[in-house]
Write a structure and sequence with these properties.
alpha+beta; 2 domains; three-stranded antiparallel beta sheet; about 30% helix; Conserved hypothetical protein from pyrococcus furiosus pfu- 392566-001, ParB domain; five-stranded mixed beta sheet
Length: about 300
């Protein structure tokens, strides 16, 4: 009888905090089974018992803090930092990123930010915490949270077949940033490796999302849109007031995205007591899992269609 080859499946993992108290039972089951190591699935009965035991606390919290999402304070950044903030807004990519909404800069209560994300990469939080000053000043917090530039993980590239380019990064924020027709210049001709007589170029951008921590202000609700791990890290260091870019949503039906980090608009804006940043720091509301290590991949391909068609 042929033996099954003893080839182990990779078990690389990272430690993840999972806010399971606010998830449905089906979500908890699916997350543990698909996102964590197999050994964590053996803990499912224990995890589900803990989840069930938290139902009364969650229900009491939902009732007691029914209007808390409408009480998040936003205070303008002090005038003494006006010059630094003005320099950020002059950055060309910053302007393009936030061209779709009226914006302002404010210092917000971290605890009362609506948090669309349910998981925390503890290794990344540790890296961030080690890179921050022990007691950051507001000027340093502006650089951490609002500056349009920050250090990011290197991106790897490989052309796997002609006209198909694959990019990868351990940072899940890597993304496709769009493709555009570019007017040819003499410098571009060095990249025309196929020869011919180039007449037009299509340039595609791959990179990371917007750097500033930003929130969506819809009515009196403040939804964290980007920068979750920085907010979590700073809050874990005892910093409760954080500078952010505020995107003002004037027409919720037309301007607010259908979902943020997987949570639908209806939940974020209409549920009386949505998930807040402070819930991650509530005793027993989160569990630590060994989550499967992964990298994010972006594949960009060009597939030309060439036909003779009627004139």
């Amino acid at each position: 009888m042929t033996k099954v080859p003893e080839i182990p499946i990779s078990t690389h993992f990272f430690e993840q905090r999972y806010l399971f108290a606010f998830a449905t039972q089906a979500e908890v089951l699916h997350h543990v089974r698909t996102q964590s190591l197999e050994e964590e699935s053996a803990r499912l009965p224990e995890i589900l018992r803990a989840w069930e035991g938290l139902r009364p606390r969650v229900e009491q919290l939902n009732e007691r803090e029914r209007d808390i999402a409408e009480s998040c304070q936003l205070v303008p950044v002090a005038d003494e930092h006006h010059e630094a903030v003005e320099a950020f807004t002059k950055d060309e990519l910053f302007q393009k990123t936030f061209a779709g909404h009226a914006i302002s800069f404010a210092v917000v209560e971290a605890d009362k930010l609506i948090a669309p994300q349910r998981t925390v990469h503890l290794g990344y939080v540790k890296r961030l915490a080690e890179s921050y000053p022990k007691s950051p000043s507001m000027r340093e917090l502006l650089d951490i949270c609002v500056s349009p530039k920050r250090m990011m993980d290197p991106i790897q590239h490989l052309e796997v077949v002609p006209n198909v380019h694959v990019f990868s990064s351990p940072n899940s924020d890597i993304r496709f940033l769009g493709a555009f027709v570019k007017k040819l210049t003499a410098d571009d001709l060095q990249y025309a490796v196929g020869g011919g007589l180039p007449a037009a170029a299509v340039i595609a951008f791959v990179g990371y999302g917007v750097a500033p921590v930003n929130v969506l202000l819809a009515g009196r609700r403040v939804v964290l849109n980007n920068g979750f791990h920085r907010v979590y890290t700073l809050r874990s260091l005892g910093i409760s007031r954080i500078p952010v870019v505020v995107q003002h949503i004037r027409n919720v039906e037309l301007e607010f995205p259908p979902a943020v980090a997987g949570l639908p608009k209806e939940y974020l804006l209409k549920v009386p007591r949505p998930v807040l940043i402070k819930d991650f720091f509530e005793p027993d509301f989160s569990i630590t899992l060994k989550a499967r290590e992964r990298i994010k991949m972006v594949a960009v391909g060009i597939s030309p269609n060439q036909h003779d068609v009627p004139a």
